[in-house]
């Protein structure tokens, strides 16, 4: 499933500089750089508590660098331990567009948008059982277009 993530300040999470940086500073409607595919790590259906990998439209995975001590990056070619996150739906409903979620990295800490948005993402905040702070929550938004669209396939083939 393809999603865009809107930070607490209303800005979208974006994979910029070829995925070298994951930031929450896009003020425009979500486009390719703001679109991520959520894939369950073990192939099970996506639900509250699922272990997931996030893949950007550049086909690279988001990673919590240096055990979550450095900002997230989106330049990994495989989904390994540090590219896995646990998704928590705050309403405990199904993972769907419009839901507010929190992500926990493999280090057991929440991913947050520095400053509530406008900066990088980092996995350095106390996680469960503590409830997530506003800077540690994201709204799931339907991207337009998604990475699977014919238009994106054409753009990718032209750039390779």
Strand portion: 35-45%
Average pLDDT score: 86
Number of E-state strands = 12
Number of structural domains: 1
The CATH top-level class label:
Mainly Beta
Strand order of the largest sheet: 1-4-5-8-9-12
How many DSSP helices?
A: 1
Indicate the radius of gyration in whole angstroms: 14 Å
How far apart lie the N and C ends? 24 Å
| Secondary-structure element string | EEEEEEEEEEEEH
Q: What's the CATH architecture?
A: Trefoil
Question: How much helix, percentage-wise, in residues?
Answer: under 10%
Report on the structure:
The longest helix is centred in the last third of the chain and has 10 residues, at 150-159. The strands form four sheets. The chain has a six-stranded antiparallel barrel with strand order 1-4-5-8-9-12. Mean pLDDT is 86; it is low at 154-160. It has one domain: Trefoil (Acidic Fibroblast Growth Factor, subunit A) (Trefoil). It is mainly beta and 160 residues long. It is built from one helix and twelve strands; from the N terminus they run ββββββββββββα.
Features of this protein?
single chain; 160 residues; mainly beta; Trefoil (Acidic Fibroblast Growth Factor, subunit A); six-stranded antiparallel barrel; two-stranded antiparallel sheet; globular; disordered C terminus
Task: Outline the fold blueprint.
Layout: E1 2-6, E2 12-16, E3 21-26, E4 36-40, E5 51-56, E6 61-63, E7 73-76, E8 84-89, E9 100-105, E10 110-113, E11 121-125, E12 138-141, H1 150-159
Antiparallel strand pairs: 1-4, 1-12, 2-3, 4-5, 5-8, 6-7, 8-9, 9-12, 10-11
């Amino acid at each position: 499933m393809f999603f865009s993530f809107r930070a607490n300040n209303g800005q979208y999470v974006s994979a910029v500089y070829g995925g070298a940086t994951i930031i929450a500073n896009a003020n425009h409607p979500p486009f390719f750089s703001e679109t991520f595919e959520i894939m369950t790590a073990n192939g099970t259906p996506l639900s509250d508590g699922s272990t997931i990998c996030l893949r950007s439209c550049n086909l690279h995975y988001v990673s919590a660098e240096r055990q979550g001590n450095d900002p997230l990056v989106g330049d990994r070619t495989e989904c390994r331990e540090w590219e896995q996150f646990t998704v928590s739906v705050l309403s405990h409903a199904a993972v769907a567009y419009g839901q507010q979620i929190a992500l926990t990295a493999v280090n057991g800490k929440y991913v947050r948008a520095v400053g509530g948005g406008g900066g990088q993402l980092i996995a350095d905040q106390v996680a469960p059982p503590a409830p997530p702070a506003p800077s540690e929550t994201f709204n799931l938004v339907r991207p337009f277009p998604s990475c699977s669209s014919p238009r994106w396939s054409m753009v990718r083939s032209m750039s390779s």
